[in-house]
Amino acid sequence: MTNEDDDAKEFDLFGGSIKISLPKNLVDASQMRQVPDEQEVFVSPDSSNLSVIVEVLEAVDPDNDSEFLQLNQTQSSGLKDSHPTSVIKYHFYSLAHDNSATTSSINSIEFPADLSYFTKDLGTIKHTPEPILLHGLQLVSKFNRPDSEADQVYIWMALWRLRGIGSGDLGTDLVLTFNLPDLSNAHLTQDQSFQHSLQRVSKLFHMAAKSLSIVDWLLFA
Alphabetically, which GO biological process terms does the record hold (predicted)? Predict the structure, then answer.
């Protein structure tokens, strides 16, 4: 069986400000197309079509987004800080909107033991907190194909809320996303090779999320 450690290597992101272990065969998408300054994007050169995105974003406040609250049939918490569940859901559904997904669903959300960094500034002794993790699915049509020919895309997402870091009032949201499309509809046939790919990518994602380390906080200045 393949050892996922052997499939990964350390990548320097944003000029070395962030270090992370990612699948070693990934190619920097900026070599092929323009990538926004706030993103690092990597794509797999093989047939898996795996893509990985790391984004530095101004921290979001779902409680102040009436459209999000309405779509999710929820109400504002009335608290100073949005609940971590709402924040990572917001990023997931924002991705679905950007993908023009016809449907989207969340399978699981995992929380670290310490969530205090969601409500307290990181302080002067900065450290990379543990992320919140999400696994979900989106149905996405590519290349102007009809919705009936949409691909099922498996999404793994990690969120680091960096309170007091950056120019925004709420701080910064650092988001890692793995996207794995099922281009052959293998999920319908229980294709064993695709099931193996799902397990492998899931392990690589968790390894990446665990390994991410912020080494230069001036990135967020």
Answer: protein import into nucleus
